## 1
Amino acid sequence: MKFEELTASVPSLRDELATKGLVTVRGVETVDDGQLLAFAESFSDAEPPDPKVLAWDFGTIMRMKYDPDAANYLFSNERVPLHWDGAFHREARYLLFFCDSSTGDGGDTVFVDTTAILRDASPEEVSRWEGVTLTYTTEKKAHYGGTFSTRVVRSHPFYPDRKILRFAEVVETKLNPVQLDIDGTDDPGFYAELEGRVLDPKYRALHSWLPGDVVIVDNHAFLHGRTPLGKNTGRSFRRIQIL
Ligand SMILES: [Fe+2]
């Protein structure tokens, strides 16, 4: 697909994102960073002087690629536990991925729809979860770090009638682990209960990457993670966090 065709479909992609929270387009011709950034910005409603995309010390486009000397697990070949982006700094509205290289054999991205989990949960479960606050802490070895706290159940910032679950898995790695403190419950089974819910295959969409894949996901409604890279160590994509 020509990139101009993709650009022309922004209104319908925006509609699809508003209803489903996840869109995938395959077979898109490669583009330069400037074109990709302009495409990403067309999904933001932010008005100047507010930025339309998040900028980090590496800029607005992150190149996700395997690094055998990685100090952080994101750039290793390990599984990446479920999380959402920007929690240590500023939560992005959408994440946009453009795949530049991949055999599709390993390193699938895992997307979990937390609005569906909450729709299916019983009122008793939701009211129990609503009383809990989670605090995550990690050392800054990549572009993020520090500490943040969140209620487990929140309203979607753009769709206040939708409830979202903000529960990231603990990161038990030698490469930049993330610790968790749980407040508001004495239940020793709380973590396992929530982990079981977000890992339930019923709520999971797996994306196996091929070059030219474009994926956009609602970062507030969904969690994401990654299966181990396996043989697919040449997998690389560009990621932009849209505000
Ligand atoms: Fe992420």
Note: The first helix runs from residue 3 to 8.
## 2
Amino acid sequence: MPNIENTPASIKNNDGKTTVGQMQTTWFDQGDRLKRALQRLGFFWLLAAITIFIPIAHFVLVPGFLIAGPVVSYITYQMCWVRDHLSGTCPTCDEKMMIKLENKDTLPKWTYCPACNAPLHITQPDNHLDN
Ligand SMILES: [Zn+2]
């Protein structure tokens, strides 16, 4: 079972005003990582099988998907955690916001408020030192 962890994150705007939000990270155990890796391998090899029927393009697509399958599945297997999203309140416009994070996002991170477009600086809160 993937384990969802919420960690506090400090959201600061350019005026130095700070709010505290929650950053959600999903952790995968050994079984989840294997399952996700096999799903990706199956998906790419299925694409390879489907693209056999596309004339001319199959000379590129079929070997491409056959090679991409193990590569993507290896990269997926190496992933122990992925970032999901950051939720909190914008320090500039006080709107509730949810920002989608990239898989490998780390703090500190610069982003923009989806409501007012203010630049935001996401950092670990000062009292959160165990990461
Ligand atoms: Zn805002």
Note: The helical segments are 30-51, 58-78.
